[in-house]
Amino acid sequence: MRSVTFAIVGCGTIACKHVISMAACQEARLVAVCDLNAERMEQIAALWHEESGEEQKIAKVAEFRELLADPSIQVIVISTLSSLHAEFAKEALQANKHVVLEKPIALSLQDADDLIRIASERNLYVQVCHQLRYRPLMRKIKDLVLGGELGEIRMGVANLRLNRSISYYQSANWRGTWEHDGGMLLNQGIHIIDLLLWYLGKPQKVYGELSSVHSFKETEDMAAGIISFSNHAKGIIEANSITLPANLEQSLFLLGEKGTICLGGGSLGRIDRWYIEGCPNAAEEARLLMKDTNEHLYMYQAMVDAILGKQHAELIDASEGKRALELIFAIYLSASTANVQHFPLSEFSTSMMKMR
Ligand SMILES: NC(=O)c1ccc[n+]([C@@H]2O[C@H](COP(=O)([O-])OP(=O)(O)OC[C@H]3O[C@@H](n4cnc5c(N)ncnc54)[C@H](O)[C@@H]3O)[C@@H](O)[C@H]2O)c1
User: Fold this and answer.
1) Which pLDDT score is estimated for 231?
2) Where would I find the Gfo/Idh/MocA-like oxidoreductase N-terminal domain in this sequence (predicted)?
3) Looking at the domain 134-292+320-355, which fold is it?
């Protein structure tokens, strides 16, 4: 029954979510875990047994490359600190493993392009963890955009008003560093920026500004971006991780020719406006959909379906994972050069920000 085999590398905070989703996915089976920290491997293995009811022993290895040599593993889930994502994903693909890859997919454009190329050359699946795209409400908005019910989208605004305390940055030494984390937009902002681009399309140019307030970290605390899209639509990003005294909200606003959608709340779980011309029941239908937040499970199910060749499963491949990444890189570059950046970008790595 559980026929698609997974291994997880990186058994930290987010790994729990992966295991719970995997266990809920009938065809997925965890066979190995990898971390430098033995206790975390034990915890993740125990969580798997508890959630899945499966008793079969889980292999525990400290060295990632041992997973690559194991022919019983089909998919490697990469949930380590961000600076290891691209390196581990490339190695996994080169060893003919499919990959579930945490965001951000890479910390440089070169690494993102390498990933796209290797996955395509080897005909392997990469599922990037922009799980919000699998939330039924977000999918509904995409269908409205594609179906033309909202008309042309004229403006999109993504707000992120969060609080990440000193203890958050001290909880792991990679957090808040350009070399290993990449900044608040890349870590916290990337999901909502991915949605903004999913709905609005290809950006043409962006102007960005950044500010750093706290000295206990290297990366930005505040960011602003103004985006122009090829169809003359405008996008605005306004984000900070120093909102007092705690997280306030994330919001996503879409202004269409024939409707307006605005989501708010802690995790975009509140409908502030859902208006579509000529559809008086649209908001009511959307409120019903809003209750379903099983996006992480649907993301796993899509990966399993793709591997089993069951049905047309829509994955978020590495080139999709590059979209928000490239926009954030362009904001960083714009802020550090005080110039508008045009797409596509030719070169960027977050470690360049250290020097600026
Ligand atoms: N998709 C989402 O919603 C979401 C949410 C949170 C975090 N994330 C992403 O997940 C990643 C991990 O975040 P986290 O909060 O779980 O971090 P974490 O620090 O809690 O966990 C990272 C784990 O990687 C392990 N690790 C480090 N080097 C390793 C190596 N060489 N080999 C094997 N294991 C190694 C660490 O020991 C640690 O257990 C980040 O890139 C983050 O951006 C995604």
Assistant:
1) 87
2) 5-129
3) Dihydrodipicolinate Reductase; domain 2 (3.30.360)
